[in-house]
Amino acid sequence: MNVPSYLAFSPDGVPWLTLLLLSTLAGVLLVGLAGWLRLPDRVVRLGVTAWMGVPLALAAVIWSRFNPGATAAGQGTVQLVELIPWIKAIHVDYFLGVDGLSLPLILLTVVMAPVAAIASWGVTDRPKAHFALLLVLEAAMLGYFMALDFFFFFIFWEFSLVPAFFLIQSWGRKNRRYAAFKFFIYTMAGSIGLLLLFQVLYLATRQAGLPTWNLIDLGRLGRSLPVEGVTGSLRDILFAYMEKVGITQTLGRFPLLYTSIAFWAIFVAFAIKLAVWPFHTWLPDAYAEAPTAGSILLSAVMSKMGAYGMLRIMLPLVPDAAQYFAPVLGGLALVGITAGAFGALANTGGDIKRLIGYTSINHMGYVMLAIAAVAALPDGATQDSRASALNGAMMQMVAHGLSTGALFFLAGALYTRTKSWELMDFGGLRVAAPTFAGVMGAVMFANLGLPGMAGFVGEFFIFRGAWATLPLFTNLAVIGLIVTALALLLMYQRIFLGPLNEDWQKIADLRPSELWTIMPLLALLLALGVYPMPILSLANATATQLVAVFQHVLS
Amino acid sequence: MTQAIPLEAVLVLAAALFCIGLFGALSRRNMVGVLMGVELMLNAVNINMVAIGRYLEPYPYVAGQTFTIFIITVAAAEAAVGLAMIIAIYRTWLTSNVDSVDSLKG
Amino acid sequence: MATVVQIVFGLIAALIVGAAVMVVTARNVIHAALWLIASFFGVAALYMLLEAEFIAVVQILVYVGAIAILILFAIMLTRQVTGEGVRQLTERWWVSLLVAVSLFAAVLVPTLLNHKGWNLPALPATANATPELLSGPAELGRGFVYEFLLQFQVAGVLLTVALIGAIVIAFEERSRRRRVLTLAEEHALNQDAARRQTAEPGLKITAVTDGE
Amino acid sequence: MAFFLTYAWLIPALPLLGCALITFTPLRRSKLASGWTAIALMLCATVLAVGLLAATAQGLALRDGQVVPLAAAAGHGEATAPATGEGHGEATTPATGEGHGEAAPAEGHGTFAFPEPNVVQRFAWAPIGESVFAMGVYIDTPVAAMLAMVTITATCIHLFSLGYMAANPRQSRFFSFISLFTAAMLLMTMADNLLLFFMAWEVMGLCSYLLIGFLFERPQAYRAAVKAFITTRIGDVLMLLGLVYLYTQAGSLAFGTGAGEIFNPELLKRLGSESGFFGVSHATGIGLLLFAGTVGKSAQFPLHVWLPDAMEGPTPVSALIHAATMVSAGVFLIARTFPILQADNGTTLAAVTLIGAFTALFAATIAVAQYDIKRILAYSTLSQLGFMVAAIGLGGWVAGMFHLLTHAFFKALLFLGSGSIIHGMEATPQMKALHHQDEYAAQQTAQDIRNMGGLRTRMPWTFWTYTLGYLALAGIVPFAGFWSKDEILAHAFVGANWVVFGVLTLAAFLTAFYMTRQWRLVFFGEFRGGQPVVFQNPEPAPRTAHHSHADHHTHHDDHHDTHGHDDHHSNTGPNWQEHPSMIAALVVLASFAVTAGFFNLPFAIPGGHWLSSLWRQEAAPLNFIVAGVSLLVALGGIAAGWSLYGGAFAGAHDTDPLNRQAPALFRLLNEKYRIDELYAASFGRLTAILALAWAWMDHAILDGVVNSIGRLTLFIGQLNFIVDDTLLNDGPDALASGTLATGKRTRRLQTGKAQDYLSYVFGGAVILALVYLYVLK
Do D751 and B105 touch (CB under 8 A)? Predict the structure, then answer.
């Protein structure tokens, strides 16, 4: 096979990505073995947590093998590629690879999974199944971030729902059934359009002479970059197919119309996962009702799957429609930011997990704003400003993953001590549990974007990029910064400040195991906030190449 | 006799015997009754074998009879094993009714 | 001559069918077994009519002499002989009847509809010549040792296996065999079983074994 | 000298190290060890900062790791950086109009320039597309002066806290926080770009939050902390927008005049001429947004409400953060970005002046009618910050910075003095008795100046140092405040901004007046604490079991309770004992309060105009008219205060003389113009309503839509069901139940009876036979 220049195979020939994927699945098998051998639950708990170090180590190896600055042929080089023909009849390939957009999220996933595992140590109801599901979920998410063939991409996308569904449904809180179904149905319903769209794209590219599910090639076609074996951009290919099918006679001969339809199909699928404004109502329910580990993985990693999908599929495949609808996206992002912030504020007297969930909507609103800003019309914007927005979005995702995961972890730890989620039940715990209060305070400030913590870097670069293209929305979006801060401070105040509530005189402070789970996260947040180079340099080259297409008027 | 009675008559007789035996095998509650129904069915088959061998086979026409012998052998074996099973079942279940033995019920 | 043969055939057929019907309908199992013997005799007679004397003899020896007797023994051993007042047919006997009748109809109807003249073999050319020798035990025996040798052997093995199998199945377990139940015990056991059966229709295996 | 330049970054690093040591090592278990660690590290930082100031004063600079004289450096850099030309021109051209006459910004001279930086060290921080964002330190002479001021005051306040916070069980945490704060302040001062500036700025905001809420058991404290954080954050996010705006326009946030740096003359010209939103020029937009940060941090008029409430924090915090350093960071911001503010021909600076002057007067009027000693000082701080802001707005860059430095010293002194007074007051038997009923009320009562009196003899050290600070603030001639305030007034006067001049003069008068009132009531007359005006706590803290337990014991035990109150007296000796470490801090600060003004004497004598020349700015000569007016006004204020309050307040419960004469006005001032109530009724309620509205929208509308889509589906399903049973397709549930029902029905075939199975076999055979015979043929 003639390998294009923008694909780079593993330099040492070892299929590291497959190993990473298999290591998590091997963990599932080990849990099964443990069940068969009737090992005690304690062994499974520690074993799974320790085993999650294996993907962590493999991801570190992948990071070391990755060349962050590599670009080729108008895009960031996709590295450590594994490309094996799979189903030849419909040209499905087993195609894994990482680039600057996926590697940070892979790293985030392998870091947060052990945290989720440690958060589940208290699970007494069917713990083996619980841990097995965590591993399955990790595998699905890793696969999603690595798969570059739509076939596998979509399989992992849908497959990740299954363990999440069962985690919520079996170990969640009182209202878990409603939440689990809402979550599942919402996401499933959203992805129907995506699936149909790719069938059409496959047929269209087949007509053009290169039938493919290959996301990299499709992305290159969408951006009018040369792909061997086919000429023209994806927009032309799609339009030619529509013409051949005859749809143009009814709907009209407007190429933008068809890319717009494609755009909305893609957008809705990923917007639901990212909890963009009118599609966000599943999120507070799901986050609130899920068990702690579920909340951690849902908020830390799964919501990033939506943003990653937009970066991987929406922007490269249909840049013209994305540019055309960017103000709409910006508007939705703005409403989401405001809605999340005020929603959190409305929950300061209620459920702590719902509150954190709403702040997540707010934070993901910034990511959405960044994506809109990347795509918006070139009104005095430079390529640097767009790259800045995209870098900021990556940073924001990583930072939000770390900080919200940590917040959920601590909320879970609080629950195990007090058996209450209601903020109004607490008060003055800082007296009895000073370390807990300190750690939670630090995590909270990281979450609300205090400079010096990673979240601020993300927000700053998002704002910097968004101002160049969408100044009005950027201006209004800062309301979210203030109101979220207020909501989180009130949350902290309700729990920790004031006179000590009589009920919690003897509450235990943070245990060393919990402390040392959070400390690495806090250290990461702080390190990335002070020196964000490691993450930003990973993403920068790919991001810069990706945004180049939007420097022109496309429609 | 081959000129007097058409083959079809014998076959119809065998079919009637078979169907009666089938009815017995399907509807008798007593296991021994079921076994008797099965024996009737086997007899019907034997009649068929012999008759077809007699009417349609060229001269020494031993094949049909040979098969009959085999079937009788099998029937004997079947009866022996079947009755042994009936006794065994009776011993454990204290019944020899077929419809009481429904551990396969779904 | 032909008429006589036809009459004889009619009688034999009536005997076979009638006896068979009684076998499946008789309330008393013993009676059913006796009717079965009658039916077997009818079949043997039919073999005679079909000029298969050896088979006829084997029929009587094996079926009447062995199987029917075996059946009678089995009936005795299972001790549910009388059956007066007890249902002899299953609840859904009409389904079976339907199946049997429709099967018969499915065979009979095309036979009657499609026949093009009764299937009577033509007389041999040497009609009045010395009649051919009927195939007798000699031909059969030759067939067994030449043509059907393998099948013959297999049948022998089958009989041996069946014999051993029957013994194994019918034998009581060692522990039970050691200890012969007294009549009182057996009565108590039956009472117990009866009680269980009334309390819990559709007796389960586990229930009894546990009870013992 | 090279050491001080090369290792300038150690100045913020040392307090940060202190914070880390105290937080993460067992040092935190010992109050004394943690306190002395912090103080020792602060002393090292002070030495470094003073050394750095000396080095920069000698005109030394660091270029490529080599120490060179600045002039040579400028010559050296001429080939590469276009900035040097600017630096030279500024030094030689006397055309800088601020000092002289006409309103400089209005005339748009725009020739203000910073002195050459002495140290610029940068490293790549984040890649942004093709370019790289660099971070580092940028030190020029104003920065060096600020560093010296911050380290000196911070060291004094650390020292003071050692005595003042001795009774607090969380003293080591307190040191950790103020060390972190100091590190952030120092880092902000020497930041080389606005982003780093902003980051350190926000960390200060965090520390402010933590320290105001240090006594977190009190609802008043944590509420004030949240209020401070959120109010300043409003300014901060606007400033963030300003940063982003500037970044978008300039492509950089780095200080400096070189290409691609934000003070590049061409860039400034472009910003001033091109118009952005609403037809406003870029420079105006950016300038106003940046100034919003100042308004928040320096508590200028619309966002001033947090600072008086911030007095809930321990008094050293008030001194350090809410008087000397953090609040003046806002002023430092507009001083730092002055070329940008100036780039739009005066619009921004006019707004700055307006806000500053208004705040100066507004806060001074409120201060007149307060009883709480710390609140009076807080409003005084607001007022003085207004002076500085107005000075910068008038183009008096040196005047504003000079006042910033002097004010830091004497206001820190005053706050520490008040801390000492409160410390003494709390040790009186009346307060101790009250303390056991309600500690918050006790503290508030102890801070009430009506309950003091006659402390002159009881706390001599405090009295004398406080008096020096008071004279400096009032603007009496040789003391620090006189010189700097005089320069500000001179700017307004020379610029013919008569309204501003009038407002500021009035404010100066009021300053002298309310400070005299306070000083008189605190230190003179008879001690009135015998029958104090007891503060009525609207929400008394619930009495915990632990506390009431402690009530049965001696006061010693009370010190160990965890209900955190900083101002508790630890020694059981006679009242009014002054702790040595507190005295030391007061004396050091008092000496600066006296002498700080001499750094920039407006005379052409050796040592005169020292700061101006250090900062390479035009020296303003002494304007005798203004100086006379200023002094006269100050003396008038003192005389008015002395006469009005000379005989007043024989007892604590007497009515204030001012209240007697103008009760309505006094009430309005006492209630701070009711702005807090206004905000609570407007913005507070609006926020709450918006939150409810959004929550309602989620629940009622969006969930309603989702649920009604569900219901609609169900309805269609039922319609289907009614129309045609066989089309029963009511979603997966119906499918599942249908399957289940079918299964249940099918299950009945599975009877477990061999005969039934056999009948199926033969029934099937019959059907097959029929099919073959009649259907397939």
Answer: yes
Contact indicator for A529, A453 with CB cutoff of 8 Å: yes
Is B102 close to D759, i.e. CB distance below 8 A? no
% of chain D residues with pLDDT over 70: 87
Give me chain D's average pLDDT, please: 80
DSSP H helical ranges for chain C = 2-25, 29-49, 53-58, 69-78, 93-114, 137-145, 149-170, 174-178, 183-199, 205-211
Contacts for D123 with CB less than 8 Å, ≥ 6 apart: D134, D135, D136
SS (H, E, C) D298-309: CCCHHHCCHHHH
Q: Find the chain B residues whose C-beta atoms sit closer than 8 A to any C-beta of D.
A: 22, 25-27, 34, 98-99, 101-106
Residue C131 has pLDDT above 70, yes or no: no
ipTM above 0.85, yes or no: no
What is the tens place of the pLDDT at every residue in D334-378?
988 888 888 887 888 888 999 999 999 989 998 888 888 888 999
* Cβ separation D747–B106 shorter than 8 A: yes
- Asked if the Cβ–Cβ distance from D766 to C96 is below 8 Å, we say no
Q: Does B touch A (3+ CB pairs < 8 Å)?
A: no
Question: Could you give the CA distance from residue A320 to residue A376 in angstroms, rounded to a whole number?
Answer: 10
Tell me whether D756 touches chain C (CB under 8 Å).
Answer: yes
Q: What is the tens place of the pLDDT at every residue in A35-63?
A: 888 888 888 888 888 999 999 999 999 99
d(CA D647, CA B85): 125
- Residues of B in Cβ contact (< 8 Å) with C172: 91
Domains contained in chain B, CATH given: 7-93 (1.10.287.3510)
Task: Count the Cβ atoms, other than its own, within 10 Å of residue A451.
Answer: 26
Q: For residue D183, what is the enclosing H or E element? A: helix D171-189
- What is the architecture of the domain spanning C1-83? Up-down Bundle (1.20)
Q: Which of A142, A194, A164 is nearest to A26 (CA)?
A: A142
Look up residue D343 and give its two tokens.
């780039």
Q: How far is D740 from chain B (nearest CA, A)?
A: 14
- Domains of chain C by residue range: 1-83
Q: Answer yes or no: is pLDDT of A349 > 90.
A: no
> Is the CB of C120 less than 8 angstroms away from the CB of B6?
yes
Residues contacting residue B58 through CB under 8 Å, at least 6 positions apart: none
Contact flag for D and A (3+ C-beta pairs < 8 Å): yes
Identify residue D648 by its one-letter amino acid code. A
The answer to whether residue C127 scores a pLDDT higher than 60 is no
CB contact under 8 Å between D226 and A475, yes or no, is no
What is the model's pLDDT at position A368?
A: 93
CA distance D734 to chain C (A): 33
Q: What is the pLDDT averaged over residues A226-237? A: 84
Contact residues, chain C, for B18 at CB < 8 Å: 103
- Greatest mean pLDDT range, A202-211, A374-383, D647-656: A202-211
CA distance D714 to chain C (A): 42
Q: Are strands A71-72 and D60-63 parallel, antiparallel or unpaired?
A: unpaired
Q: Is C165 in the B-facing interface, judged by CB distances under 8 Å? A: yes
Long-range contacts of C111-116 (CB under 8 A, 24+ apart): C111/B8, C111/B11, C111/B12, C115/B8
How far is D776 from chain B, CA to nearest CA, in Å?
Answer: 23
Report chain B residues whose CB lies below 8 A from the CB of D762: 22, 26
In the predicted structure, residue A177 carries a pLDDT above the cut 50: yes
Hey, is the C-beta of D750 within 8 angstroms of any chain B C-beta? yes
Window 227-246 of A, Cβ < 8 Å to D: none
**Any chain A CB within 8 A of the CB of D578?**
no
DSSP string, A183-208: HHHHHHHHHHHHHHHHHHHHHHHHHH
